[in-house]
Design a protein that fits this description.
Layout: E1 2-4, H1 5-10, H2 12-18, E2 24-28, E3 31-36, H3 41-50, H4 60-67
Parallel strand pairs: 1-2
Antiparallel strand pairs: 2-3
């Protein structure tokens, strides 16, 4: 979503709530000057991408040892 800086100032609460779900690009004079986004969105997407990558039958200790190259 793209909005003007003036629109952001007038409706900050609304856009803060929307930023939880989607990135909001703020423009001034037709140019993007900032991006309002959820700082946890990247973590959630990364966690979702890892689902199914780690076998269900491996323990946390085994995964750490494998990562460290000890297995």
């Amino acid at each position: 979503m793209s909005i003007t800086a003036t629109e952001l100032k007038l409706n900050l609460g609304k856009y803060l709530k929307l930023a939880e779900k989607e990135d909001i690009f703020i423009t001034r004079n037709g140019k993007v000057i900032a991006k309002l986004s959820n700082p946890n969105a990247d973590r959630v997407e990364m966690a979702k991408s890892l689902l199914g990558v780690i076998p269900a039958d491996i323990t946390l200790e085994e995964a750490r040892a494998e990562k460290a190259g000890k297995l």
